[in-house]
Amino acid sequence: MPIEDLKEQIARLPEQPGVYLWGNAAGDTIYVGKARTLRDRVRSYLGARGLSPRHEALVEEIATLEVILTDSVVEALALENNLIKQRAPKFNILLRDDKSYPYLRLTTSEAFPRLLVARRVERDGDLYAGPFLPARLGRRTMGLAHRVFGLRSCSETITGARDRPCLEYDIKRCLAPCVSEICSPEQYAVAVAGTRLLLEGRTDELAVTLHERMTSAAAGERYEEAAQLRDAVRTIQTLRDRQQKVATAQLGDRDVFGMKVGPSGGVIQIFAMRGGRVVERVELTADPAVAGGDAEMLQAAVQQFYDLRVPPSEIHLPFALEDDEALSEWLSGRADRRVRIHVPQRGDKRQLVELATRNAELSYRTRFNETTAAHFDALETLRSIFGLSTMPRRIECFDISTIQGSETVASMVVCEDGRMKKSDYRKFRIRGAGTPGVTVGSDDFAAMREVVQRRYQKVVEDGGPFPDLILIDGGKGQLSAAYDALAEVGLGNLVAVGLAKKEELLFARHLADPVALSEFDPALLLVQRIRDEAHRFAVTFHRKARSMRDLRSVLDEVPGIGPRRRRALLTAFGSLAGVRRATREELGAVVGARAAAAVIDYFARST
In 10 A of CB 580, how many CB atoms? Predict the structure, then answer.
């Protein structure tokens, strides 16, 4: 394989930290990784076969190697993060944020900040809060900021030189920083600070301040203002109740990670705690093809999550990472203060990690429902049992149907990702030309050989789709016949297995003994369901073939009765028995006098 051709280049690599980039034959970067010692890390890929389907696929595609030296592991980590963003290699874990709900963006990068709705968090120096669940709560929070603090909502460039304020000032929804005589930059900064308290979840402090203002307004008989402040306090309490479910004052500011990785993919849940309260919940997901192991996915989640966010002083993880010291140093550099990565073992902090993990597990079951998860478990079991290089996402199953050697037919059904794909079903009439000197008749082996040969000859001509696994309804004999046909069309490298009906044993050519799975094993249940569907499809086709044969054996043998007249007779009289009972005049009215006479004569001779 191509990676073997890179042995000399790998042997000459330095024992220094850096970043390595695997490329394919087309020149595309397919994986970016960091290493404390480049030579040792890159050399480990030479023995990566069999670790997982993902590693197997990566190694198969590697054709080139590029390395970039760095002065430290921290620099390597930062460079790896940037290269993954720029090149989006297909074998790197690329987590997706849940963007179903909006964020609020306080544009602190502007001299006179505004509060806007945002669908994604950007690295632009502004303050982001959210996501808000439900979305209308974000709109209410933004409206509250305008009413209580008077933040501007316009996109005008503020110079303070405007002659008069707009309507927003008149309805008391803006402090009018556009008119310097009305609102100074210092006054506006106080309003921004209050809004920041609201967005950061410090609602207890804010509620006390607003309550004092409400009491003062009521005492001064400014009842309309007092009512607005009362509504504002209620909205803040609602916001606190909905978004700050977990509260422990001693926990301060920290982020807590929980995760669940399974055959259907991976889910990361992050609880952001500010002031001892959970003020934000973010969910990251990964597809099964790139989910990788637990440690690899967790490290990717930490790197990608803080690429757009300033990390808090503490980050709690469910387990330790290999390069947690380098990761902590990189995060500290981004935050301009010390950031500590901690794996809690007991107490409130550990309970919070377990809570985040339970949320991740719940989200996993919701996002990848139990049926889907069971399908992937079954496919992974089949991959492991039969030593497949990839998960058998496409399975094609064959079944033969015949009664005493008459009207032998075959069916092929397709299962993709655990679901039957009826649009790809195929049915075959056995012609008996599969093996020279062999009459098919009741010979299931010859019939299986013929249908497999015909199917995959067509697949080769069309260029696909090729199955990951072929399932044969039968034992060693049918399986051997199928492999003979595959070898004939040049696809002997495909993997086929047989499923014997009575014992429900799985046979494979490269296994000395059949595989016996538990009757409740998801893998056995899946192949049984596929086999039963192939049998149903074959039997249905066989019944139709026998019915057509019966029709042909009677009416098609009558001189002058072709397909059109046969159809007309059956439509008019309902069945063969009805045609047989009809009089000459009744038959003549449907097919003419001459054809009616031929039908009468035929049935007279047959009796």
Answer: 15
CA distances from 262 to 192, 193, 336, 505, 518 (A): 44, 44, 36, 27, 22
Domain holding 577, by residue range, is 558-606
What is the biggest distance separating any 2 CA atoms in the chain, rounded to whole angstroms? 117
Q: Do residues 74 and 325 lie in contact, with contact meaning Cβ atoms separated by under 8 Å?
A: no
Assigned domain for 552 exists:
no
Domain count, the chain: 5
Banded model confidence at residue 318, pLDDT cuts 50, 70, 90: very high
Give the mean model confidence (pLDDT) for residues 311-321.
Answer: 90
Q: 404: pLDDT confidence band, cut at 50, 70 and 90?
A: low
More confident residue, 542 or 466: 466
Burial (CB < 10 A; 0-12, 13-18, 19+), residue 5, is exposed
pLDDT of residue 319: 92
- Beta carbons of 166 and 174 less than 8 angstroms apart: yes
Look at residues 92, 126, 150 and tell me which one is the last residue of a structural domain: 92
In our burial notation (b when 16+ CB lie closer than 10 A, e otherwise), range 437-460 reads eeebeebbbbbbbbbbbbbbeebe
User: What is the tens place of the pLDDT at every residue in 29-82?
Assistant: 888 988 888 888 888 888 766 566 677 778 888 888 888 888 788 888 878 877
| Prior bond of 465 cis (ω within 30°) | yes
Name the pLDDT band for 482 (thresholds 50, 70, 90). very high
Clarify whether residues 521 and 588 are in a common domain: no
Which residue in the block uniquely carries the two structure tokens 């001779």?
Answer: 605
Which of 546, 566, 590 represents a domain boundary (last residue)? Answer: 546
Question: DSSP letters along 192-243, please?
Answer: HHHHHHHHTT-HHHHHHHHHHHHHHHHHTT-HHHHHHHHHHHHHHHHHHHHH
Mark whether 63 and 142 lie in a shared domain.
no
What is residue 61's three-state secondary structure? helix
Residue type, 335: A
Residue 161 corresponds to which amino acid? Answer: A
DSSP designation for 267: E
Over residues 528-557, the mean pLDDT reads 73
CATH number, domain of 596, equals: 1.10.150
Say if residue 494 is in the same domain as residue 514. Answer: yes
Gap between the Cα atoms of 164 and 143, Å rounded: 23
Rounded Cα distance, 382 and 395, in Å: 11
pLDDT, tens digit, for every residue of 236-278?
776 565 544 444 444 568 899 999 887 667 888 888 887 666 6
* CA 384 remoteness from chain centre: 21
97 pLDDT tier (thresholds 50, 70, 90): low
